[in-house]
Batch of 2 targets.
Target 1
Amino acid sequence: MIKLYELAGAEENRRFSPYCWRIRMSLAHKGLAVDCLPWRFTEKEKIKFSGQERVPVLVDGDHTVSDSWQIAKYLEAEYPDAPSLKLENGEVLFVKFWAETVMNPLLVKFLLLDIHDSLTAKDKIYFRDSREKLFGKTLEEIVEGREERMPDFHKTLTPLRLTFKKQQFVAGGSPGFSDYIVFGAFQWARCISDFSLLQPDDPIYEWRQQMLRLHDGLAGNAVGYSV
Ligand SMILES: N[C@@H](CCC(=O)N[C@@H](CS)C(=O)NCC(=O)O)C(=O)O
C-alpha cells in the first residue's frame, strides 16, 4: 500500500500540513488507499531516505517522491486511468505559486502560535527557534493584532471569491489539484486553530464546505476545529 509521511501535532491524529492535505485529497480523488504515517518536525532521520527534510513524502513500492507538486505529477503519470487531478492546464502552477507566495504567508501570521501550541514538547522548541529566526520576531509578536489584519486577508481572496460566483470549483465544474492546493491552506488553519477565517455568507465558505464533504468527508472528519 502507498505510504505517506504526514506532519502531526502532539496528538498523533492532528494532521495539519497544507502540503500534506493536498496529497491526502489527491490520493482520495484517485481512489488510492494510503497508510498515513505521523511525522514530527524533529524526526528528520525518519525521512532521510527521501534525500530531503520536509513532508509530504510518498512511498509507492520502489518509488519515493517528496514535494507535493512532484507527488501530484507522479500520481497523475503513474495512475492515468484514475480520475484526473487536472494538471494538464498550466494554470495550476499559477494557483500553486499564488497560494504559496500570497495566501500562505498571510495565513502563517495568523497561525504560528496555534501551530506551536499543538506540537510535541521537542517540536515546540525547534518550531519557535526556527520560525523566530526566520521572522526576526517572537511568535507572539508575529501573531499580535491578527483580527485587524483580517480585512486585508479577505481582500486578497477576491479573485477566489469571484471565481466561485462563476463556477463551482477552482478547477471548473469538478475539483482538481488547484482546489486541493487552496483547500490545503484552509484545512491547515482549520486543523490547528479556532481562529475563524470565513463567514457563512462568503462564497468561499460554501466551497470549503463542499471540499470538507468530498471523498466521504475525509477532510471534514479530520481532527480540527469547527470554524
Ligand atoms: N514545497 C514543499 C513544501 C513542504 C513543506 O514545507 N513542508 C513542511 C510541513 S508543512 C515541512 O516539512 N517543514 C519541515 C521544517 O520546517 O523543518 C511541498 O510542496 O511539499
Target 2
Amino acid sequence: MMRYERNNIKTMRGYVSGEQPENDKSVKLNTNENPYPPAPEIQQVIVNFDVKVLRRYPPARADKFRDLAASLHKVDRHNIIATRGGDELLRLLITTFVNPGEAIAMTDPTYSLYPVLAQIQDCPVVTVPLNEDWSLPNDFTERINKADCKLTFLVNPHAPSGKLLDTDTLACIASELDSVLLIDEAYVDFIDDDYDSIPLIFEQDNIVILRTLSKGYSLAGLRFGYGIGAEPLIRPMLEKTRDSYNLDLISQLIAEAAISNHDYAMENCRKVIAQRNTLRDSLLELGFSCEATQTNFLLATIPTGFACSAKQLYEELKTQGILIRYFSDPRLINKVRISIGLPEENKKLINSIKSL
Ligand SMILES: Cc1ncc(COP(=O)(O)O)c(C=O)c1O
C-alpha cells in the first residue's frame, strides 16, 4: 500500500491532536478550550432544528454567517470567508497561495499545525526563532524575504507564550513582507488591551486574519472559523479552493446564533481573564515564573529545585485526573502550558501542585 503514498506524505508525521480525557470528571486544561458554556440561544437552535431540511445542500458560502461577521467587524461580506475551523483557513491559504516546493515562514515556537500543513503541500518551512523574551528578532521580515517565502504564519497573541504584538508592529511587518501574512487571532477574544487589527486589511493588500469560534465562543466542538482580508485574497479561496460545501447546515445555524450573541461570549471571556489573573498569582506564589498573557492559557516555568520536571508534573497531574500540556521542544522543556479553567478547576490544580 505504501507505494501509493506521495513521498512527502510517507516521510512526514501527522498532527498530534490534544489528549482527550477518559471521563467527564477530568479537569481538562490542555487544549485551550473555554470552560464556560456557549450562548443559550445555541441550545434553542438545536432543539428547534427540523431534520427535514437536511435533505437539501447547505448554503455553499455561508452567506448569512458572512453578513453577520461582516457587520460585527464593520467590513463587507466580500472580506469574509467562513471555514471549517480556523484550521481549514490555514490549509486554504497554502493551497491558494503557495506552490509545492515554495517556502512557508513561521516563528519558532508556534502553532504546531503550521509545519504539518506545509509538509502536506511539500513546502519547505523557514523558521525564525523568537528572542529569549518571545519577541520577534529585528531581521524577521528580512530573513523571510531572503528565503523567498510565499506565506508567513504569525500567531497573535502568540501561542504558547501569550505575548501580544501591537497593530503598528503588524502593519510594519505586513508592509515589509513580500509574502501573504496570516495573522492568526485564535485567542483575540482574551486580549485585555485595546487591540483591533481589522482596519489593517484596508491598508495592506497581503493580510488575512484568522478568527475562530472555538475559543472565545466556547465552540471548539463545532469546527467553525473565518478569515478576514482584502477581497482579492478572499475571493480565490471562496470561489476556487474551498470544498464545494465546506460547512454543514447545522454548524452554519449554530455559528449564526453564536456570532449574533457576541456579547454573551465576551462576558464569558472576561470571566476567563479574571481567572487567568488569579491563577497566575497562585502560580507565582508557588515559585513558578509565569509571564502575564493575553490568551486563555498561561505558560509557567517550573521553579529551580522543584520536586519534579515539567514532564513529571504533567504525568503526576494526569494520574490525579488533571490534564495540562508539556512540550518536548528544548526551549519549552522546563515549562507547562495551562489553559484557564473554571475557578474550582484552577483551585484543584493549585492544590495538587501544592501537594507535590
Ligand atoms: C494558534 C491557533 N490557531 C488556530 C487554531 C485552530 O482553531 P480551530 O481550528 O479550532 O478554529 C488553534 C487551535 O488550537 C490555535 O491554537
